[in-house]
Structures are given as structure tokens and as C-alpha cells.
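User: Structure with adenosine-5'-diphosphate, C-alpha cells only please.
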Amino acid sequence: MNDKTNKPAYFSLHDIHSYYGESYIVQGVSFNVHEGEILALLGRNGAGKTSTLRSIAQIGDPLVTQGECWLDHQALHDMESFEAARAGVALVPEDRRIIQGLTVQENLELAQIAPPHGWSIERIYDLFPRLGERKNQEGTTLSGGEQQMLAIGRALARDIKLLLLDEPYEGLAPVIVQEIERTLRQIKELGITTIIVEQNAVAALKLADRAVILDTGLVVFDGTAQEVLDNEALREEYLAI
Ligand SMILES: Nc1ncnc2c1ncn2[C@@H]1O[C@H](COP(=O)(O)OP(=O)(O)O)[C@@H](O)[C@H]1O
Ligand SMILES: [Mg+2]
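Assistant:
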């Protein structure tokens, strides 16, 4: 935030409330993310992290969201999910959603079927050489780590402004986590703004510039990633680490 010009943050959530039917899940969440920054969105299971990501990506049905969500001067809250995607939001969901029956290459080509186009497939293979080596293999037969790479690659195949990662390290061996961490650092160097939700909070905090911690749908911490790493009481209370 540049206070002198009152320029809004690149990305901001303002007083987001969301519901699954009668269940009130996200209870007035606000935070900003600056351009090119990685924000770790943390909190225990059921804290509302996935619901917050879905609210940002405007994925309703059955989630109903109120509040404002801005990305680079665009009002995401007035959009449908496909319009938010076109405006530059890419959600890589926890289950990765690799399309069955399609090869690695076809999964990437499908992501590029509609503009705005992002990275070329060759460039995605440069970032993830394992995908290039397996380009003719069916996507759903890849290892968990390779499927995560494909899911991230598919996001980059579109021209994105905000990358939302929901538990990208889940179920992956430490050596694969390190490989994905390396690529996320490279993606950051290219200036892509990222929100990462992760149960492996230490790994997420090492990668992130800033952190927001949710507890039962409320923001209980908003500060630098280093502050969380340094604050044992905070980690014990909300992250159980
Ligand atoms: N489709 C759904 N229908 C009803 N309740 C849901 C649904 N998805 C999630 N919830 C509930 O919303 C709460 C927050 O879930 P979620 O956002 O997935 O948390 P987190 O990602 O932090 O673990 C949980 O209590 C969960 O049971
Ligand atoms: Mg979740």
C-alpha cells in the first residue's frame, strides 16, 4: 500500500463472509497481498482456508460469499468463476483435477484453448523438465509430485495475475516438496503474486513473505512470515507446530 497516493493493494479481500447453507464459515476476513509477493494462508484443519480460496476464485455452488475482492483494480466479487479466471485468478485445488484420458501435453494444451494465453508449453517444460520427459504419458498416471507440477503448469499456461495453491505439498515426499519449492521461487522471481495454503506451515513460511492465520473463519494474525517463525506461542496455538 502506497499511503501517499492511496493506491489500493494489488490484491485485497475486504470483509469476506461465506456460507455453506446454514453454516457460517468465513466470518469477515480482510487482508491484502502486494504485487509479486507470496502470502501463506495458514490455520488448522477446518479454519476456512479452502473456503477463502474458493471465495477469491468466485467458486460458488454451494458456497455463498459476501464482501469485496479486488485484483489489480478489477472487482472479482462481481464476476462468475470463469470471468475471475479470465481476469487472472488461477486456483490449483487440493485434488489437482488432472483430466483423465489426456496426456500431460494434452492437459496443457487444453488450458491454452481460450485466451488470455500465458506461458508456452516449451517454457513450462523448461520449468518442470519431468513433465517434458513424460509429455505423452496419461496425466492421471503421474506420481503425486508430477501431478502437482502439471496442475501448476496448467495454471501458468494461462496469463495469470494471482496463483492460489491449496495444499500443494500434501502427500509428497520431502525431496519432491523441495523441488516444487524451487519452482515456486522461480515463479515468484517472475513477479507472479501467490497465495499458498499449506498444512506444512514451516515449508510455506520459508517460502512466503507474509502470513495470514485463520482460526474458525477469522483472521487472528497478519504479519511477516518471519514473525510467525519467531513466535512459538502463536505457532503452538494456531498451527500446532
Ligand atoms: N461443501 C461443504 N458443505 C458444507 N460444509 C463445508 C463444505 N466444505 C467445507 N465445509 C466446512 O467448512 C469449514 C471450513 O472448511 P475449509 O474451508 O475446507 O477449511 P480448511 O481448508 O481450512 O481446512 C469446515 O467446518 C468444513 O466442514
Ligand atoms: Mg482446505
